[in-house]
Amino acid sequence: MLTLYVARHGETEWNAEKRMQGRLDSKLTEKGKRDAMLLGERLKGTRFEQIISSPSGRALETVELVRGGRSIPVTTDERLFEIHLGSWQGKTDAEIKGLYPAQFHSYWNLPELYENQGGESFHEVKQRISEFIGDLEKRVPSGNVLVITHGVVIKALYLICRNSRINEIWNPPFIHGTSLTVVNVAEGRRELLLEGCVEHCRHP
Question: Which residues carry out catalysis (predicted)?
Answer without folding.
Answer: 9, 82
